[in-house]
């Protein structure tokens, strides 16, 4: 049986990538007919193309916004008599090159922030969808019972490719939440493990390769072969810049997924670990309060 | 025994959705003081379509739910699916039974009118199971309303599809009892 491929349908309003939905693999309500086992198939590369276009669009958009802001600032500052012209961008600015450099850096940062925000939205909603079928329990006391918190990541409905781990049917016990109680490290670990296994499988069809933690709220997730980075040219400096831009989205995905699971104050940063041969390896650092 | 109220509360306690289904008279005159409360009730029902007297019971139920969650003894070990999120009977107040259902991001509380005699335990258990299924379906509807990329996260649920779905579920539940 072919696995359902995650695919977005292009959003009419443009810009915001719609959340990944499993194509008709889960009937939306109890009354849906059981014939919803037919999966739609969409090419996996579709999302890579879409992401590339999104990145370019955001860069263009931020440049445009920066241009307009600069022009508006010059109109206000340069022409007090109301004659500040739109074409007068060269004269009147003190140090055009420094300004432009600063503006460029600002635009790059804002683009990254925007993409990360998109990722946050998508990650949150996707995680909500995934948690629905494998019920993650909501806020309880911060310390879960030891009996139920062993990593039995079984799913209630048709277990997915969870690979190893005891094939139990226990739902994942989450603690914390509610009035901003801090989750204890054990449940934090459970949340991150769910992220590494189920969530990552859903998005990239593989699990995170390596997870390290210091049991005090810092996690490092290493992926040796991130699908979206595979096409980068090896051994080029521009590849690094491109990779960092692309990686903003998975950062947002991780942050959104963690927020959905109860770790709302996480800070996620990414690192591009490629050497000449494997351009696609990267790592994500999660810091939870 | 009919469904009186449904409430969806966020993880931090903020209300996301309140709705009542009883068709009683909608007067706000709870204490017989003959104060004219018609206006406030209309404004309130515009914002939160739930009668105030149900909101009192919901608050009590919410508090009881939080206590249960803190104690962390409500989990049935080895339960899967909807059973895993089911907290169960919370409290009885004003002839209304409150039930709780907890998921990662929200808590669902329903108030059901109490009309089964205490002896009839089997019937009560069956009814409880139906409430559990109802809340699992509401959970599904909520997840779907979140799938809309234009709804801001963590705010009041304003989706018409959710409204219609919940009304349908309530009607189905009431017609069975």
What is the radius of gyration of chain B? 16 Å
Percent helix among the residues of chain A? 40-55%
Multimeric organization: heterodimer
- Helical fraction of chain B: 40-55%
Sequence stretches where pLDDT stays below 50 over 5 or more residues of chain B: none
Largest sheet strand order of chain B:
2-1-5-4-3
Largest sheet of chain B: 5 strands, antiparallel
The main β sheet of chain A shows up as:
4 strands, antiparallel
Q: Name the biggest interface.
A: A-B, 46 and 36 residues
> What is the arithmetic mean of pLDDT of chain B?
79
| Through-space gap between termini of chain B | 6 Å
- What is the 3D shape of chain A? globular
Instruction: Please write the string of helix (H) and strand (E) elements of chain A.
Output: HHHEEHEE
The number of strands of chain A is 4
Which blocks of ≥5 consecutive residues of chain A have pLDDT under 50? 1-18, 20-35, 80-93, 137-180
Tell me about this structure.
- The complex is a heterodimer of chains A (289) and B (177).
- Chain A has 289 residues and is of the alpha+beta class.
- Chain A is built from four helices and four strands; from the N terminus they run H-H-H-E-E-H-E-E.
- Chain A has helices at 45-78, 96-133, 185-204, 237-261; strands spanning 210-213, 218-223, 267-272, 282-287.
- In chain A, a hairpin with a 4-residue loop joins strand 1 (210-213) and strand 2 (218-223).
- The longest helix of chain A has 38 residues, at 96-133.
- The two termini of chain A are 42 Å apart.
- The model of chain A is unreliable at 1-18, 20-35, 80-93 and 137-180 (pLDDT under 50).
- Chain B is an alpha+beta fold.
- In chain B, 44% of the residues lie in helices and 21% in strands.
- Chain B is built from five helices and five strands, in the order E-E-H-H-H-E-E-E-H-H.
- Chain B is globular and about 50 Å long.
